[in-house]
Amino acid sequence: MRCYLCGRVLLHVAATVETVHGKRYAGPTCARRAGLLPARVSRPRIFTVRPRRQRDTGQMEIPA
Q: Which of 4, 15, 29, 44 has the fewest CB atoms found within 10 Å of its own CB?
């Protein structure tokens, strides 16, 4: 099966459209771009993402 909008091989059909030539199928990305599917809703994160602390990898200098 191929996407009728871009021609890629489909693993998952996201939308089916009835045309004069018969049923046509669209993949998830093309269906969103064409307005056949609603846009994804971003969910709030459960945890805040903080940058990791940098480890001090340098060695101490030996006093002479």
A: 44
Write down the mean pLDDT value for the chain.
86
User: Cβ contacts of residue 33 below 8 Å, gap of 6+?
Assistant: 5
Listed by start position, the domains of the chain span 1-38
**Whether 16 contacts 25, CB under 8 Å:** yes
SS (H, E, C) the chain: CECCCCCCECCCCCEEEEECCEEEEECHHHHHHHCCCCCCCCCCCCCCCCCCCCCCCCCCCCCC
* Cα 46 to Cα 56: distance, rounded to the nearest angstrom: 30
With contact defined as beta carbons under 8 Å apart, do 1 and 9 qualify? yes
